[in-house]
Write a structure and sequence with these properties.
It contains 15 helices and 10 strands. The protein is α/β, with parallel strands linked by helices. The strands form 2 sheets. The protein has a 6-stranded mixed beta sheet, sandwiched between helices. It has a 4-stranded parallel beta sheet with strand order 5-4-3-6. It has 2 domains: about 220 residues, Rossmann fold (3-Layer(aba) Sandwich); about 100 residues, Rossmann fold (3-Layer(aba) Sandwich), CATH 3.40.50. Helix 9 links the parallel strand 7 and strand 8. The chain starts with a helix and ends with a helix.
Length: about 350
């Protein structure tokens, strides 16, 4: 098995000699160079950090490995989280790996089917509550101090520490930091983690720092509006969050990098979602395409032929949200198994 993030990056992580090397092989995800979208936008070096190839299908596994390891070290028996889906899948997987119990609290109707199926398959106890993710997170935080319970949402500092390793990998893979990094923003822990990782590398080895551009869905854009959104709405369920837990650190990352946090519409998100699949062969869930949607939007006034490397973070695999893959598409009707029918398809 590929070494996990704790083994690979122990000197950069808050671990002790007693911290177990919990892993499902997370990290080491590919940095895929764009073959069609980049050239179409006039970008010579556009890359996609494909985090959907983590064990449970999302970037959450990086932080969950470390959070679970420290929970085991502290004697926890239960991993607890609120989730729009990816956190629940990841927590359930790592709990199963370590013989722990997972209890996940999810908003009714707010979790993609693929993610809910994952948590069920891993054996998690699922509590479905009326209301938003923000209410679910508030609820679990109230019981986080129960004996032998570890809260593993991104308010857990080990989650952010584990997730920063993606920034380390990008620098290793590129040989430098990118000039710009585009990333979806929901609960805002990931943009916080990437900035922390880049800053730590800069302080240790003098690497440059990227400009960060965070993408929120227009119907769930509290950081863009400057106030919480009580009823967030977007097709991108993973970032359907109205009051991010890492609000202040995300703003700090934006401002310190000289970047932006901007809104993109659901139409723009789904257009980017389809382009990633059809033009790059990269299957992602809708939220993952938000950063690409923002890049396309911002590239309208960009000078053609820009040569500095740009990275878009693709946070979760497309099979997380199977309904999104066929939304707006026509499923072919069966035809007779004849040579004529096949030739007709070849000529279409």
């Amino acid at each position: 098995m590929t070494a996990g993030i704790i083994e690979r990056y122990a000197p950069y992580l808050p671990v002790t000699p007693r911290t177990p090397l919990v892993t499902l092989g997370e990290g080491s995800t590919p940095l895929v160079r764009s073959s069609r979208i980049g050239p179409a936008l006039g970008l010579d070096q556009l890359y996609f950090k494909y985090e959907g190839l983590n064990p449970s299908g999302s970037f959450k596994d990086r932080g969950m490995a470390l959070a679970t390891a420290r929970a085991v070290e502290a004697g926890a028996e239960t991993l607890l989280c609120a989730s729009t889906g990816n956190t629940s899948a990841s927590a359930s997987a790592y709990a199963a790996r370590c013989g722990l119990r997972a209890v996940v609290v999810v908003p009714a109707g707010g979790v993609a089917t693929g993610k809910l199926a994952q948590a069920l398959a891993y054996g998690a106890i699922i509590v479905v509550v009326n209301g938003s993710f923000d209410r679910a997170l508030k609820l679990v935080r109230q019981v986080a101090d129960e004996p032998a319970v570890a809260l593993v949402n991104s308010v857990n500092p080990y989650r952010i520490e584990g997730q920063k390793t993606a920034a380390f990998e990008i620098v290793e893979q590129l040989g430098r930091a990118p000039a710009e990094l585009y990333i979806p923003v929901g609960n805002a822990g990931n943009i916080t983690a990437y900035w922390r990782g880049f800053c730590e590398l800069a302080s240790r080895s003098g690497t440059s720092l990227p400009v960060l551009h965070g993408a929120q869905a227009a119907g769930a854009a509290p950081l863009v509006r400057g106030r919480p959104v009580t009823q967030p709405r977007t097709v991108a369920s993973a970032i359907r969050i109205g009051n991010p837990a890492s609000w202040s650190t995300a703003i700090e990352a934006r401002d310190a990098s000289g970047g932006t946090i901007e809104a993109v519409t659901d139409v723009e998100i789904m257009t980017a979602h389809r382009r990633l699949a059809r033009e790059e062969g990269l299957l992602v869930e809708p939220a993952s395409a938000a950063g690409v949607a923002l890049l396309v939007k911002r590239s309208a006034g960009r000078i053609s032929g820009a040569s500095e490397p740009i990275v878009c973070v693709l946070t979760g695999h497309g099979l997380k949200d199977p309904q999104a893959l066929t939304r707006g598409l026509k499923i072919p009707r069966p035809v007779e198994p004849t040579l004529k029918a096949l030739k007709r398809a070849l000529q279409a």
